[in-house]
Design goal:
Blueprint: E1 3-5, H1 13-29, E2 32-35, H2 42-50, E3 53-56, E4 67-70, H3 77-86, E5 89-92, H4 96-110, E6 114-118, H5 124-130, E7 137-140, E8 153-159, H6 165-175, E9 179-184, H7 190-203, E10 208-212, H8 218-229, E11 234-237, H9 245-248, E12 254-258, H10 264-276
Parallel strand pairs: 1-12, 2-3, 2-4, 4-5, 6-7, 6-8, 8-9, 10-11, 10-12
Helix pairs in contact: 4-5, 7-8
This protein binds iron/sulfur cluster.
Iron/sulfur cluster binds at residues 12-15, 72, 95, 97-98, 161-162, 189, 191-192, 260.
């Protein structure tokens, strides 16, 4: 079968770096605890678990004197301090771009700004960023969450790294009329933007799109939504075994796109199968 891959696609810099650090730690220490799932991909978590990874939902679930790993999404400041005091070794896989958002939030808060975070309040990255704010904060999902009937005083705005720049610009343009003092940091990550653009570009070249990535991955879901919105018939699978090959037959060139948390080996399994058919 003919296929073309999106470019760029698959693991982003931050997740790749975190996984490489985790793999090195597993090789060195045998057993490593991760606070929360290290990657939104069930197959990759399964592979890492077979190498000795243990996923803990909170710091108390991590044995004292053990080796702990902080995933690319980061953790709150207090969780980081707790891990440092509880564990023998802490391997920090926090993506530098997420770390930058945490630092911006911390400094805005220290300078007396009420920090507005554009993002999903339930996402671990947002929870981590909020953990660096000492003063007031507010999480919003978009411009519709802004109460236009009140004043906001002194606000500092930043974003979860995977949000859209357009949404950030939209909320800033609303807050301009509602706040006395505004400081804005664009903390949106380019890796996400590039992957979204790549899917749109790919859609113009192919007759069907296959999106591969964890069903629990928000960025893969976003790529799938973009794929569907292009009007090109699209399918979202976690691995090659889920592909309906009969559905693909006779459809012409297939486009392959992967979420920023889809490991290379899963993409390779899929493309190898496409090559053989
Ligand atoms: S999407 Fe960007 S900010 Fe998030 S882990 Fe990847 S490189 Fe880092």
């Amino acid at each position: 079968m003919n296929f073309v891959s999106a470019n760029p696609t698959g693991l982003c810099f931050g997740v790749r770096r975190a996984i490489e650090r985790l793999e090195a730690a597993l090789e060195k220490y045998g057993k490593v605890y991760s606070l929360g799932s290290p990657i939104h991909n069930p197959q990759e978590v399964g592979r890492l678990s077979s190498l000795g990874l243990e996923v803990a939902s909170d710091v108390r679930g991590i044995s004292e004197d053990s080796v702990a790993f902080i995933r690319a999404h980061g953790v709150t400041r207090s969780e980081s301090t707790e891990l440092e005091s509880r564990c023998r070794v802490v391997i920090d896989g926090t993506c530098p771009f997420v770390r930058r958002a945490q630092s911006r939030a911390e400094s805005l808060s220290a300078d007396g700004y009420r920090v507005v975070v554009l993002g999903d309040p339930e996402h671990p990255e947002v929870k981590g960023i909020l953990g660096y704010i000492d003063g007031e904060s507010l999480v919003i999902n978009g411009a519709n969450d802004i109460d236009c009937g009140r004043r906001y005083g002194k606000i500092g705005i930043l974003s979860q790294t995977t949000q859209k720049e357009e949404t950030l610009a939209e909320i800033v343009s609303k807050f301009v009329f509602l706040a006395d003092d505004i400081k804005v940091y664009n903390t949106v990550c380019q890796a996400t933007i590039e992957r979204r653009k790549a899917v749109k570009k790919l859609a113009a070249l192919v007759s069907v799109l296959l999106v591969i990535g964890g069903k629990n991955s928000a960025n893969t879901r976003e790529l799938f939504e973009i794929a569907k919105n292009t009007g090109v018939p699209s399918l979202w699978v976690e691995h090659a075994g889920e592909v309906d090959w009969g559905w693909l037959k006779g459809r012409g060139t297939i486009g392959v796109a992967a979420g920023g948390s889809t490991p290379d080996w899963l993409i390779n399994e899929l493309t190898c199968k496409l090559k053989r058919l």
